[in-house]
Design brief:
alpha/beta; Rossmann fold; two-stranded antiparallel sheet; about 20% strand
Length: about 260
């Protein structure tokens, strides 16, 4: 049976929040104000220092939804494409690049499962040589983001996406790997036979120690121009979980959100 390695993105493959990393290019492109850039920088700082528990992720979701409402989708994709290497290259962990290479060499698919938006995660996944991407889907109407979310790749929804992909592509989950820094990804980590905590937050470290999961420390960002990455698969499939799993993800997200309110 086939196997795969599932990677969270933020603070696992890259050292920052991918959703906030493009704030300065977005300002230069006229999408956000200087004040919003400062708010993004503050949110990035809080995220890096405080981790990504459920409360923090909910605040991040609300902030990004408000920030992106009304943005022109084509402009966003153009800015990301033009500034991708400048923004992302300096913050990719060398250790993560090495793991991606090792998993590909072992014949495993590499799949990024990220809460950040697909228009940011897809290009990053392609640059890193990932085979597939599962990411949050922002609602689009008339070529603009509405500020609402159609599919939120978060917590239980990530685990559901992993299980759906396993059923669809024939992955033996008992032989698959998963990597994340956040306690919110415990469901995804528990879905595979080889879970790993990477730069774990306080709560995930406790879970990993109790469960006997390996704890990895990534601290060496690398310029990707100096690394030889394996070629990506034929296509980078955003939200590769299919329509049915997307519906499940939306329901899980709405259920979790309702519990917060």
């Amino acid at each position: 049976m086939r196997t795969a390695a599932f990677f969270d993105l933020d603070k696992t493959i890259i050292a920052k929040s991918s959703a906030l990393a493009f704030s300065k290019p977005f300002q230069a492109g006229g999408l956000i104000s200087r004040r919003s850039v400062l708010r993004s920088a503050y949110a990035q700082f809080v995220y890096m220092v405080g981790g990504a528990d459920h409360d923090q992720m909910e605040k991040m979701r609300q902030f990004m939804s408000q920030l992106t409402a009304g943005w022109d989708v084509a402009t966003v994709r153009e800015i990301v494409a033009e500034t991708l290497h400048h923004v992302v290259d300096p913050i990719v962990y060398d250790e993560a690049v090495g793991l991606i290479e090792e998993h590909h060499a072992a014949g495993r698919d590499v799949i990024i499962v990220s809460t950040s938006g697909a228009d940011v995660v897809e290009p990053i996944g392609e640059m890193l040589g990932a085979d597939h991407v599962v990411a949050t889907q922002m609602r689009i109407e008339d070529g603009h983001y509405t500020g609402e979310i159609d599919y939120y790749a978060y917590a239980d929804a990530k685990a559901e996406a992993v299980r759906h992909l396993a059923a669809e592509r024939g992955y033996d989950l008992a032989r698959c790997y998963a990597y994340s820094d956040s306690v919110t990804d415990v469901p995804m980590l528990e879905a595979v036979g080889h879970p790993h905590a990477v730069n774990p937050d306080k709560e995930l470290r406790k879970v990993a120690e109790t469960a006997g999961w390996p704890v990895l420390v990534f601290n060496r960002p690398v310029n990707l121009d100096k690394k030889r990455l394996p070629a990506p698969g034929p296509t980078i499939t955003a939200l590769a979980v299919g329509g049915a799993a997307a519906s499940v993800g939306v329901l899980l997200w709405k259920s979790w959100r309702n519990r917060l309110t």
